[in-house]
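Quick question about two entries, pasted in order.
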Amino acid sequence: MKFRGFTTIVIIVVALMMSFQPSYAHPTPQVIKITQTVTPGFYEGQQVFYYTFFNGTPILSGGTEVAVGQQYRLVDADSQLIQGQSDLIAAGPYDKGYSDLREIIEITVPDDYEVNSITSVEDLLAQNWPQNPTGKLHNSPIVRTGTQLQGHDYDPLSIWINGEEHQAFDFGETPAQSAPIWVLITGYDATGSAVRLPGQAGPIIRQLQSDPGYSDFWRVYFVTVPEDTVPNSLRSYEQIIASGYPIEASENVINCPVIRAENMAIGYLNDAAYYITRIDRPDLPLDENLPPIYTYVYDDGVPLPDTPWVLSVGEGDDGYTGFCMRTHVLLASGYHTSETALLNDPNANLQPVGVVSTCAILMLKN
């Protein structure tokens, strides 16, 4: 992957996060919990959030495409997964042949295969067992063991790399082409690195998962704006084009799976406002151990407009999992922004709904 300097990448992702590249030669025996944070951006004027991964995925055709690796998945004669068996890849991040984007290749193993008895691609291919390239391209970045995703319930995967077990997240299928992302800058410094527009809340994208041309892999376009540009006055592709400001395509491509904007809500925890995921999950079984999330409603259960969601727990609190049980608030003396004030309101009529909802905190609302 060709970079225009590490500083440029930091600019692109709005001073995103700590570097988290794992060491493959000396795995740490003690698992350290690391949170992969979200980055804000804009889509059609609305704020969206996404993750960013830097693993050295090679680019092709000047940045319009990304290289595709291979991920081997073991199945039985009926094409059923071998339970407990981890997938295998041949290289780790920044190694030759590595890519976050990998085609799933199914390997049919004999009936007497012992689970995880083969832990390297070299040994696997030496067996000459039948192969079935599925054509399915999955975005599965390798991360340091112990990494968790801020604001999402993706479960990590275990993947074998040359006999060592590592952790990855599978964000599903995405094409090998890149999609554009526009970053507002005021110019370049003496080192050739782009200088981001101060105060701009994030870059601008044009596609979400349901839009034609979407990809998790974003090719960076720099938009040079005047230094006196009002931050966040440009929030959509249409505004960029209408502005007439010069646009320069780069060969920087970053892996940025997006969390969709329409799943966002404002939730309050102890009077502080956060961006949270807010998706009802009636498919999940009810769990009395899940904490409540409160929402103000009319008598018929329709949410009152412009009223807060109130969280009972946050990251680091006992019971926090990113899931809650919805509870309606029918009457109250006022609209509270903390559970304590709500529970102490004698007029508050609380009614559990019996529906599991996501309530994962993404980031503090500015």
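Here is the second entry:
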Amino acid sequence: MKIYYNLTAFILPCKRIYTLSYHGDFFSLKNMKKALWQLHVSVFLAGFTGVLGKLIHLNEAPLVWYRILITIVTLFLVLFFQKKLVRVPFKKLMQLTGIGALIAVHWVCFYASIRLSNVSVGLVCFASVGLFTSILEPVVTTKKFSWPEFGLGLLSLLGIYLIFHFDFQYQLGITIGIVSAFLAALFSALNKKQVAAADTQTVMLYELSGGWLVLSIGMPLYLHFFPGISFRPNYPDWGWLFVLSWLCTLLGMNLMLKALQKVSAFTQNLTLNLEPVYGILLAFAIFGENRELGLAFYAGVGLIFLSVLLQMVRMSR
């Protein structure tokens, strides 16, 4: 009888620990799956941005200026009526403003890449963000350097090189597209710290407000070097701008920031390599861009898709 009580005293705590551990793993796995779904929905919405950028008859800087303005006004009103507006310390404000400036310049370079090449090439250049993130994330955060992630990033870069090497007419657009990808990797790595310490909508409001302010300050200089461009959207442009701001920016960015609370910046950015899939298919259907692209483009895209697939296999393990 004494042995029975001794065994019971040992087994029951072990069972409780196992049960708590199992449920902890279960909820952790459930949260991770939710984060991955949020990430993929945001990437799907991001796939429309390239097409919308070509449908809107504005140059890259005015387009981004209106996109951010509509987004921050909408987000401010939502948070105001929900009584969720939160003040942040001055130091934090400066950090968020700096990240917002990176986001704004990234978008300007992204749309400039599309205008100098086409939607498909501009989107494919974004795939190099994985390589840049594998290098920048360990520098900015406490994450250790990963050789497998670096290798997958190089695989994506090789795909871009195939397109760059053979399609000479798109070289300037590809160069600016790679600069855009570098900026995207940098602000994603920096955002990893911010979303862990504050609400995602608050982070988004302050970042985009800072980006809009920086863009507004630099707009006179932009108009000086590019005189004669149209700064006023026409009526169809307003409709596309609201779609771009509300769906692709407000909803998409909120989902992405929520996902970033659970997944690494590298996983986020490598998953963003799927953005060209949706954008390219739309560009093929709407603009017929498949007639402009050669074998090198498809070989490069194949390598980029392979890098995404291999990362999904790594995550599943």
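Reply: DSSP finds 13 helices and no strands in the chain. Residues 47-316 form one domain. Hope that helps.
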